């Protein structure tokens, strides 16, 4: 029921904002929905609003068991209720015993089904570099990656075909970078 409400809300927002779906991915959407665990990386992430565009896009495509990780210091009283409803999982990024990557891998592994949404840049500002945490999380959890994107120049959104990481960091990252070239977030 909640997934349907999110879907119709997303359809309304997409219609109202004038954004449109890039239709190239339709033929493997059912494969994605049948995958029990998957990581959606969302780029470009250049502004806080990019997150909401990506979240709305995930609702539009009816990704079930959608979660994202947020530092526990941002789970303020009152706001935390709303954040939990949209899929936030609070994590302590100051944990010295277990690193953030290990903590997230454990969260993923203890669930039967999860769709994890992560911004590889690790920040809400425009940056030319990405942090490698998302890569290690996906590789250590043995889950496929789905590269979702927005493009503010064409006002389109979509995603690539899902793929498993090989462990060859450079080759995998080169493949991912090709997907995101010529895509622009809200801050160019």
Textual characterization of the structure:
This protein is an alpha/beta fold. The chain is built from seven helices and seven strands; from the N terminus they run αβαβαβαβαβαββα. The chain has helices at 2-17, 29-33, 48-60, 79-85, 100-109, 133-141, 169-180; strands at 20-21, 37-43, 66-71, 88-91, 114-118, 145-151, 156-159. A seven-stranded mixed beta sheet has the order 1-7-6-2-5-3-4, sandwiched between helices. β3, α4 and β4 (88-91) form a beta-alpha-beta unit. The longest helix has 16 residues, at 2-17. The radius of gyration is 16 Å and the shape is globular. The model has no long low-confidence stretch (mean pLDDT 82).
What keywords describe this structure?
7 strands; 188 residues; alpha/beta; seven-stranded mixed sheet; 38% helix; single chain; 19% strand
In short:
This protein is of the alpha/beta class and 188 residues long. The chain has 7 helices and 7 strands, in the order H-E-H-E-H-E-H-E-H-E-H-E-E-H.
Order of helices and strands, N to C?
A: HEHEHEHEHEHEEH
Compute the number of helices: 7
Global mean pLDDT: 82
Structural class: alpha/beta
Q: Which bin fits the share of residues in helices?
A: 25-40%
Low-confidence runs: none
Radius of gyration: 16 Å
Strand content: 15-25%
**For the largest beta sheet, what order do the strands appear in spatially?**
1-7-6-2-5-3-4
According to DSSP, the number of beta strands is 7
Globally, the shape reads globular
| Main sheet makeup | 7 strands, mixed
Spatial gap, N to C terminus: 37 Å
């Amino acid at each position: 029921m909640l997934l349907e409400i999110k879907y119709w809300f997303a359809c309304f927002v997409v219609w109202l904002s004038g954004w449109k779906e890039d239709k190239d991915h339709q033929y493997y959407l059912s494969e994605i929905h049948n995958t029990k665990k998957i990581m959606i990386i969302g780029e470009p992430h250049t502004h806080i609003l990019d997150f909401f565009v990506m979240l709305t896009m995930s609702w539009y495509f009816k990704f079930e068991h959608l979660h994202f990780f947020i530092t526990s210091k941002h789970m303020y009283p009152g706001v935390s209720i709303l954040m939990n409803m949209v899929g936030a999982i609070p994590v302590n990024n100051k944990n010295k015993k277990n690193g953030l990557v290990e903590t997230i891998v454990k969260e993923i592994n203890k669930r039967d089904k999860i769709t994890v949404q992560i911004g590889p840049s690790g920040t809400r500002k425009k940056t030319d570099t990405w942090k490698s945490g998302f890569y290690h999380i996906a590789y250590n959890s043995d889950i496929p990656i789905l590269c979702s994107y927005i493009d503010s120049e064409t006002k389109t959104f979509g995603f690539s075909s899902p793929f498993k990481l090989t462990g060859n960091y450079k080759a995998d990252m080169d493949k991912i970078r090709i997907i995101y070239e010529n895509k622009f977030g809200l801050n160019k």
